Amino acid sequence: MNCKLLIVGALLCDVMAMEAQTADVADSLTMEKMMHSLPEVMIKGSRPIVKAERGMLSYNMPQLLKQLPADNAYEALTRIPGISDADGSLKFSGNGVTLIINGQATTLTQEQLTDRLKALPAKEVVKAEVMLSAPARYHVRGMAINIVTKAHAGERLLSGQITGSWQQSRYGMGFGKGYLNIQHGKFGMDVQYSFRDGSSYSEVSHEANHPLVGNRIAYYDKTWKKSFGIAHSYRLGMNYAFAKNHRLDLSYTGTWSKYNANNHTTGTGVAEQHSDSHTYMHNVDADYSLPFGLRLNASYTYYRMPQEQLLDGMLLTGGGLSGTSRNLATHSRQTIRKWAFAADQNHSLSHGWGLSYGLKAQFATNNSFQTTLDKLGNVVPGASSSVDISERIWNVYAGFSKQLTKHLSLEASLAAEQYHSLQWNEWHIYPSLNALWNINDDHILNLSFSSNTEFPSYWSTMSSIFYPSTYSEIWGNPNLKPYSYYNVNLMWQFKRRYTLMAFASLKPDYSVQLPYQTTDRMAVIMKETNFDFDRTFGLQASAMFTIGKWLSGNAFIVGLCKHDKSSHFFDLPFDRKKFSAILGSTTSIKLCHTQDLRLILNPFFQTKSIQGVYDISPVFMLNADLRWASANDKWNLHINGSNIFNHQFDTRSVQGNQDYRMKVGQQWASGTITIIYKFGGYKEKKVKGVDTSRMGH
Predict the structure, then answer these.
(1) How far is Cα 138 from Cα 141, in angstroms, rounded to an integer?
(2) Are 641 and 671 in contact (CB under 8 A)?
(3) Are 635 and 554 in contact (CB under 8 A)?
(4) What is the DSSP letter of 77?
(5) TM segments (predicted)?
(6) Rounded to whole angstroms, what are the CA distances from 636 to 69, 70, 678?
(7) Does domain 58-682 have CATH number 3.40.718.10?
(8) Contact 175, 163 (CB under 8 A)
(9) Buried (b) or exposed (e) across 492-512, using 16+ Cβ within 10 A?
């Protein structure tokens, strides 16, 4: 019996190898003969979806997407266990992650990279490398995901994808995306285009018992916001593979958008608000890889956003006028220019050693202003300011990797960075470490450490005040300083399907925007300030599961202990601790055996949590996606429900003399129907394939 099992295992390995290499008729017939000749006892095998590589979790995305399909590269990342985007940005274990595409440095913001991934078909993603501590050679720090796309060099290829969607919420919005990939031997080109056009709806309400001169004044308002916008995003990328590991990539990315919004506020504060904004963004990236391990990169981004707002409002108390009215016209413009240059060298040395070193220089200018006029056309002093500053960042690093034993490897790096601007002129040292112990095929341990400094946004450091309503004021903070953070993670992965992770995060001088009710007038100030620290300790467990042929997916649970402390938040110091839990899942239910018809469910739940003075009520959101694909996968039809139960984020501050509540419904419940057509495919190879893998405010 044991001999039979060995024979069966060997035969199945041969079958799996042939499936991975070709799918022609001859091989199918050979497979059928083998299957008929197998003994009665069979052993089933499957490719691993995730494995540990150099201190990172490397996900085989084509394998993962067989179980949990996705339309675009961004959506594909949400299929990874532990990754969620409940608040509109990707998070892993409740912490933000930095996105990288093919390991390339760029001056694009994370929001702009996200837009690019949403236009990139999911089938173009080969793997996603989840790094608990990104090595210095990527020019990012902390948790990161490197998205590796397909390398088509050497192919003769013409393929693409066209997507059309209609989203219906309170109002309707249309979306369109197109992707074209052309490869002719050593030369390749890809074109992306996307647009959205239509209206969206959101709500926000405020409740307060305002402390005013020793009394309490009840306040309530509700704002309905209708936004209309049209946006176009486009990208042209070209590459040429001179030889193996010798490649040049050039790309241009652009965005043009126009939005206007009308807010109608009723309650204690009544107001009408109208705003218009435009966005212009141009980016050029160049990346040159040479056979001896040298990589050169240059990037330039130009970003401009002019905006106008008209506010006509009045504050009412006790049924009469309080004497507070705001009739304001605000004009603002932000213009950002960023240049970046990077050079990286990697060496593979003898005895399992690897060496990397390099440098990056980034220069940026920020020319921005805000001017606020009252109804008589006079400049409002506290609400008008301008900046014209330059910043300079120099970063040098060196790192090494070593295969210490057959099962134990180590990668470490040290980066030194000098940041110079009018506000700051500082040096920082950033160590990173990844230690991997591959105990056996079923058990892996990974220890990582990372550090970084987070700089405030350009707008948050201006000295002006912005008035979004008659009650709310958004204050800039010229004294705002960067904050550092340090992350330690210990991960245990077993059976290639289950992961346990313990982590700790320390953020001295952490900053975030918080509310404060003044006691001398009816106003709530929204201001970003530095804490003493923000500390988080937690545990995460995740698992991938398959039940029969009809159910598959992943699930995760995170337990967090958060500690926020600030000794100088206005006259309201706080020292708060809170335990919370996060649960999420992506589950695929196959509804038909003869058709590719499945239902994908994405529940997300978070218990009560804190952020500074805020208490954040429990969050529950559910997305559902009914998907059908034709037999040849050329046509896809999806019907999606987003935020089905129309959850609104509910926050409240009751520290000290404060009593302020805000409910935000930005992601309104919506239904979307999407049609996708895929065309083209691979042709016979003519040339041997090249082994390459690859500001807003």
Answers:
(1) 8
(2) yes
(3) no
(4) H
(5) none
(6) 11, 11, 8
(7) no
(8) yes
(9) bbeebbebebebebbbebbbe
Q: Where are the domains of the chain?
A: 2-37, 58-682
Nearest-10 Cα torsion for 80, 83, 87, 93:
170
Residue with tokens 């990279």: 113
**Residue 110 contacts by C-beta under 8 Å, 6 or more apart in sequence?**
89, 98, 99
370: nearest Cα among 452, 465, 437, 453: 465
Instruction: Note the Cα 150 to chain centre separation in Å.
Output: 21
Mean pLDDT, consecutive 10-residue stretches, the chain (697 aa), reads 40 39 39 38 54 78 89 88 77 80 81 84 90 85 87 83 95 95 92 95 94 90 95 95 92 95 93 95 95 94 96 74 78 95 93 92 94 92 88 94 87 93 86 89 89 85 88 91 90 88 94 94 94 95 89 92 95 96 93 91 95 95 94 92 93 95 89 93 38 35
Q: In this structure, how many other beta carbons lie within 10 angstroms of the beta carbon of residue 376?
A: 6
Q: What is the 3-state secondary structure (H, E, C) of 6-17?
A: HHHHHHHHHHHH
Contact (CB, 8 A) for 116 and 253 = yes
The Cα–Cα gap between 558 and 127 comes to 24
Identify residue 190 by its one-letter amino acid code: D
- The CA distance from 168 to 497, in Å, is 37
Burial code of 211-248, b = ≥16 C-beta within 10 A, e = fewer? Answer: bbeeeebebebebebebebebebbbebebebeeeebbe
Q: Rounded to 5 degrees, what angle do the CA atoms 547, 551, 555 make? A: 90
Distinct helix (H) and strand (E) counts, the chain:
5, 38
Q: How far apart are CA 235 and CA 178, in angstroms?
A: 10
